[in-house]
Design a protein that fits this description.
single chain; mainly alpha; two-stranded antiparallel ribbon
Length: 119
């Protein structure tokens, strides 16, 4: 799936919505930003393994796609804060049931593993 599909009027609406959160970190960033505005360093601390370069790229793409708002405060050193836009909040709410299904699946898989005899 490509980000260009997020703006192609001939694609399925689900494809257009998924295209803006496609990637390893965007859903996690969306989830963290649900709790309120965060600075980039806070987001990196909360997501071990996420490099500064990848974080910057993901946040720029999410801002370009209308999911997050980037606010730069004119203080020294510069203070940048990211928050969800109305569209980002709506998408996050819409993903809630998908998250619930994911947790159900994980519970089922754990139960299946627990039922298997040890080899």
């Amino acid at each position: 799936m490509t980000r260009s599909q997020a703006v192609d009027p001939s694609v399925c609406g689900v494809t257009a919505a998924i295209a803006v959160i496609d990637g390893k970190w965007k859903t996690s960033l969306l989830w963290l930003l649900e709790s309120g505005p965060h600075r980039p360093a806070e987001l990196r601390r909360r997501l071990p393994g996420l490099s500064e370069k990848v974080l910057t790229q993901a946040l720029r793409e999410m801002a370009s796609d209308g999911l997050v708002h980037r606010e730069v405060h004119d203080v020294l050193p510069l203070k940048t804060v990211y928050s969800l836009t109305d569209f980002g909040r709506r998408l996050s709410v819409a993903l809630g049931p998908v998250s619930d299904l994911g947790h159900e699946r994980l519970d089922l898989l754990a139960a299946e593993r627990a039922e298997r005899p040890a080899s």
